[in-house]
Amino acid sequence: MLSEPLVYIIILNYNGYKDTIECIHSLKDIDYKNYKIVVVDNNSVDNSIEKIKNTFNEIVVLNTGINLGYAGGNNYGIKYALENKANYICVINNDVIVDRNFLKPLVDYMENNKNVGIVGPAVCEYYDKNIVQSTGAKINLAKGNVPLINYGKKYSNITKSKVIECDYISGACLLFRKDLVNEIGYIPESYFLFYEETEWCLKVKRRGYKVVCLPNSKIYHKGSASVNNISGLSEYLMFRNRVVFVKRNANIIQKIYFYNYLFLQFLYWSIFKRKKIYIFNYYLHGFFNKIDKKYSFCYIKK
């Protein structure tokens, strides 16, 4: 009889079976025993489902039938996990490989700290494993940005025993209890990509829970492999959704500061960086809750 809580690990795949297969290989070697892997395929067109099933015939692969984006696809897997007696759910990007002991410290910390809503590992570079991408981040609603903690530092120079309280945990890997979804709701589906997990972490903190990073747990992240396969989409949604995020979450004072900040930024770009003026149109799409016609395939809930 396993005494460890049951963890469902949700991996979202979109035309990236090679990354997903590498991710699964690393997960199958972890020192935590009571876990199940579920791959959610966001309607890939590269035979991803067949490739993954042929490599791992024991793994559940779900097909959404439509590209639901980051939140919608992961929520699809989260619902499956909740229906199948998960105690904890770990959402992890397909372009990640994990340290063998990454999961146990996260679960143990959650078991002993009921005031924590979301926990995540240190995220390091895949291609230079001693360089940190983030150990969580802070949220600045007045500027609409999310400054990363320890970005670019050497992992060997970070105090591993220190728990880092933060506002946001990277969507590359985060862990939460099953009850969190009933209390907070699912990951917001108003973005397609970028800022959805930021808003979710913010909701968790506003409900009174802590969001923390444990540097003694570590994963290695390649970057936004799937979205970068679609030219221009990453840049467009990053700028558009910045405005959407502030509109949905900031108070009136923060919004006034933010809109003035964007206006001054636009003036600066107009004078010194004319090539960047087009980005202001992305901001306007966020303000008016529009989506560019060439990205109309993006599934976004209003």
Q: Could you characterize the architecture of this molecule?
A:
It is built from nine helices and ten strands. The protein is an alpha/beta fold. The chain has two domains: 7-228, Spore Coat Polysaccharide Biosynthesis Protein SpsA, Chain A (Alpha-Beta Complex); 229-295, no CATH class. Strands 1, 2, 3, 4, 5, 6, 7, 8, 9 and 10 form a ten-stranded mixed β-sheet that branches. The longest helix is centred in the last third of the chain and has 21 residues, at 252-272. The mean pLDDT is 93.
List the SSEs and their pairings.
Elements: E1 7-13, H1 17-27, E2 35-41, H2 48-55, E3 60-63, H3 69-83, E4 88-93, E5 96-98, H4 103-112, E6 116-125, E7 132-134, E8 164-166, E9 173-177, H5 179-184, H6 196-206, E10 210-221, H7 233-249, H8 252-272, H9 279-287
Parallel strand pairs: 1-2, 1-4, 2-3, 6-10
Antiparallel strand pairs: 4-9, 5-10, 6-7, 6-9, 8-10
Helix pairs in contact: 1-2, 7-9
Question: What's a quick, concise take on this entry?
Answer:
The protein contains 9 helices and 10 strands.
Main traits of this protein?
single chain, 302 residues, alpha/beta, Spore Coat Polysaccharide Biosynthesis Protein SpsA, Chain A, 9 helices
Helix content range: 25-40%
Count the DSSP helices.
9
What is the radius of gyration? 19 Å
Give the SSE order as H and E letters.
EHEHEHEEHEEEEHHEHHH
| Uncertain residue segments | none
Strand content: 15-25%
Q: How many domains, as an integer?
A: 2
Counting helices, strands and paired strands, the structural category is alpha/beta
CATH architecture tag of the largest domain? Alpha-Beta Complex
Overall pLDDT metric: 93
Shape: globular
Q: How many β strands by DSSP?
A: 10
CATH class category name of the largest domain: Alpha Beta
The profile of the biggest β sheet is:
10 strands, mixed
Tell me the distance between the termini. Answer: 45 Å
CATH-derived topology of the largest domain: Spore Coat Polysaccharide Biosynthesis Protein SpsA, Chain A
